[in-house]
Amino acid sequence: MAIRExxxxxxxxxxxxxKQVTVFDKKLGILLDDMYDTMIKDDGVGLAAPQVGILKxxxxxxxxxGRIDLINPEIxxxxxxxxxxxxxxxxxxxxxxxxxPNRVKVKAQDRDGNSFVVEGEELLxxxxxxxxxxxxxxxxxxxxxxxxxx
Length: 150
Ligand code: CO
Known about the structure:
This protein is about 20% helix and about 35% strand.
Protein backbone atom coordinates (compact mmCIF):
# COMPACT_ATOMS: atom_id res chain seq x y z
CA MET A 1 0.00 0.00 0.00
CA ALA A 2 1.14 3.48 -0.71
CA ILE A 3 0.03 7.05 -0.46
CA ARG A 4 -0.53 8.56 -3.88
CA GLU A 5 -0.39 12.20 -4.92
CA UNK A 6 -3.80 13.86 -4.99
CA UNK A 7 -4.39 15.88 -8.13
CA UNK A 8 -5.64 19.38 -7.43
CA UNK A 9 -8.16 21.64 -9.14
CA UNK A 10 -6.68 22.90 -12.41
CA UNK A 11 -5.14 19.51 -13.25
CA UNK A 12 -6.73 18.51 -16.55
CA UNK A 13 -7.13 14.88 -15.45
CA UNK A 14 -9.96 16.01 -13.13
CA UNK A 15 -12.03 17.21 -16.09
CA UNK A 16 -11.94 13.97 -18.06
CA UNK A 17 -14.49 11.20 -18.39
CA UNK A 18 -13.19 7.94 -16.92
CA LYS A 19 -13.25 4.57 -18.66
CA GLN A 20 -15.19 1.52 -17.49
CA VAL A 21 -13.10 -1.01 -15.59
CA THR A 22 -13.00 -4.29 -17.51
CA VAL A 23 -10.05 -6.02 -15.87
CA PHE A 24 -10.41 -7.01 -12.21
CA ASP A 25 -6.83 -7.88 -11.38
CA LYS A 26 -4.33 -7.39 -8.57
CA LYS A 27 -3.41 -3.98 -9.96
CA LEU A 28 -6.99 -2.78 -9.45
CA GLY A 29 -6.91 -4.02 -5.85
CA ILE A 30 -3.67 -2.14 -5.23
CA LEU A 31 -5.15 1.03 -6.74
CA LEU A 32 -8.20 0.79 -4.43
CA ASP A 33 -6.07 0.14 -1.34
CA ASP A 34 -3.76 3.04 -2.20
CA MET A 35 -6.78 5.30 -2.78
CA TYR A 36 -8.22 4.30 0.58
CA ASP A 37 -4.96 4.97 2.44
CA THR A 38 -4.55 8.30 0.65
CA MET A 39 -8.12 9.31 1.54
CA ILE A 40 -7.72 8.35 5.21
CA LYS A 41 -4.41 10.18 5.51
CA ASP A 42 -6.06 13.40 4.33
CA ASP A 43 -9.23 12.91 6.43
CA GLY A 44 -11.48 12.46 3.41
CA VAL A 45 -14.71 10.47 3.23
CA GLY A 46 -14.34 9.54 -0.42
CA LEU A 47 -11.85 9.47 -3.27
CA ALA A 48 -12.22 8.79 -6.98
CA ALA A 49 -9.50 7.31 -9.20
CA PRO A 50 -9.02 10.46 -11.35
CA GLN A 51 -8.01 12.26 -8.14
CA VAL A 52 -4.88 10.11 -8.15
CA GLY A 53 -4.46 10.50 -11.91
CA ILE A 54 -6.11 7.24 -13.01
CA LEU A 55 -8.95 7.61 -15.52
CA LYS A 56 -10.90 4.55 -14.43
CA UNK A 57 -14.40 4.28 -12.96
CA UNK A 58 -13.30 3.37 -9.43
CA UNK A 59 -14.24 5.02 -6.13
CA UNK A 60 -13.65 4.42 -2.43
CA UNK A 61 -15.96 5.82 0.23
CA UNK A 62 -15.90 5.67 4.04
CA UNK A 63 -18.07 8.11 5.96
CA UNK A 64 -17.20 6.40 9.23
CA UNK A 65 -19.52 3.43 8.75
CA GLY A 66 -17.07 1.24 6.85
CA ARG A 67 -15.22 1.13 3.59
CA ILE A 68 -17.14 0.75 0.33
CA ASP A 69 -15.35 0.19 -2.98
CA LEU A 70 -17.41 1.06 -6.05
CA ILE A 71 -16.26 -0.07 -9.49
CA ASN A 72 -18.26 1.15 -12.50
CA PRO A 73 -20.87 2.70 -10.18
CA GLU A 74 -24.23 3.89 -11.49
CA ILE A 75 -26.92 5.72 -9.56
CA UNK A 76 -30.10 3.76 -10.23
CA UNK A 77 -32.50 5.50 -7.84
CA UNK A 78 -32.66 8.76 -5.91
CA UNK A 79 -35.08 10.10 -3.35
CA UNK A 80 -35.54 13.38 -1.51
CA UNK A 81 -33.12 16.25 -1.19
CA UNK A 82 -30.45 17.51 1.22
CA UNK A 83 -28.55 20.78 1.21
CA UNK A 84 -25.30 21.05 3.09
CA UNK A 85 -21.59 21.77 3.10
CA UNK A 86 -19.26 19.85 0.82
CA UNK A 87 -15.53 19.82 0.24
CA UNK A 88 -13.06 17.87 -1.86
CA UNK A 89 -9.49 16.68 -1.36
CA UNK A 90 -8.71 18.05 -4.83
CA UNK A 91 -9.91 21.52 -3.77
CA UNK A 92 -8.32 21.90 -0.32
CA UNK A 93 -9.61 24.54 2.06
CA UNK A 94 -12.72 25.27 0.03
CA UNK A 95 -16.28 24.51 1.12
CA UNK A 96 -19.53 25.05 -0.71
CA UNK A 97 -23.21 24.38 -0.15
CA UNK A 98 -24.46 21.66 -2.46
CA UNK A 99 -27.94 20.18 -2.87
CA UNK A 100 -27.94 16.42 -3.42
CA PRO A 101 -30.51 13.64 -3.20
CA ASN A 102 -31.05 12.53 0.41
CA ARG A 103 -31.04 8.86 -0.54
CA VAL A 104 -29.42 7.11 -3.47
CA LYS A 105 -29.23 3.56 -4.63
CA VAL A 106 -26.03 2.66 -6.47
CA LYS A 107 -25.31 -0.36 -8.61
CA ALA A 108 -21.63 -1.21 -8.82
CA GLN A 109 -19.07 -4.00 -8.90
CA ASP A 110 -16.60 -5.01 -6.23
CA ARG A 111 -12.88 -5.52 -6.79
CA ASP A 112 -13.54 -9.06 -8.04
CA GLY A 113 -16.14 -7.92 -10.55
CA ASN A 114 -19.19 -9.08 -8.57
CA SER A 115 -22.22 -6.82 -9.00
CA PHE A 116 -24.03 -5.43 -5.97
CA VAL A 117 -26.45 -2.68 -5.02
CA VAL A 118 -25.81 -0.37 -2.08
CA GLU A 119 -28.04 2.29 -0.60
CA GLY A 120 -26.87 5.45 1.13
CA GLU A 121 -28.61 8.20 3.05
CA GLU A 122 -27.51 11.67 4.06
CA LEU A 123 -23.66 11.92 4.15
CA LEU A 124 -23.22 8.54 2.45
CA UNK A 125 -25.60 9.54 -0.35
CA UNK A 126 -23.72 12.83 -0.70
CA UNK A 127 -20.37 11.02 -0.88
CA UNK A 128 -21.65 8.59 -3.54
CA UNK A 129 -22.93 11.46 -5.70
CA UNK A 130 -19.78 13.57 -5.23
CA UNK A 131 -17.42 10.70 -6.12
CA UNK A 132 -19.46 9.47 -9.08
CA UNK A 133 -19.43 13.05 -10.44
CA UNK A 134 -15.60 12.88 -10.43
CA UNK A 135 -15.79 9.92 -12.83
CA UNK A 136 -17.48 12.17 -15.37
CA UNK A 137 -15.02 15.01 -14.89
CA UNK A 138 -17.19 17.12 -12.58
CA UNK A 139 -16.13 18.92 -9.41
CA UNK A 140 -18.57 19.89 -6.65
CA UNK A 141 -17.76 23.56 -7.28
CA UNK A 142 -19.92 23.42 -10.42
CA UNK A 143 -22.95 22.76 -8.19
CA UNK A 144 -21.94 24.75 -5.10
CA UNK A 145 -23.40 27.95 -3.74
CA UNK A 146 -21.86 30.10 -0.98
CA UNK A 147 -18.30 29.04 -1.72
CA UNK A 148 -16.07 29.71 1.27
CA UNK A 149 -12.28 29.48 1.60
CA UNK A 150 -10.96 28.47 5.00
CO1 CO B 1 -13.95 15.28 -4.56
